[in-house]
Amino acid sequence: SSDKINIFVNVDLVEMLGSESLLYFTVGERTLSAKINPEVKLVVGDKINLSLDLSKAVLFNCETGDRLMSV
Question: Which helix (H) or strand (E) holds 65?
Fold first, then answer.
């Protein structure tokens, strides 16, 4: 689908939350996060290829935390 893109990123942080994990990475000057399956074992510094489904993306204001929109 044209709503999917692939990007290569370095893992900045992995936050394990039980039923899911949050993966933090930097693109340009922005820190982004993605929910991932907790069975995927990543550590800080790993270089990975992420496939992003933009039809499921949700954007937030980085200063207020307010939800801006779904893509």
Answer: none
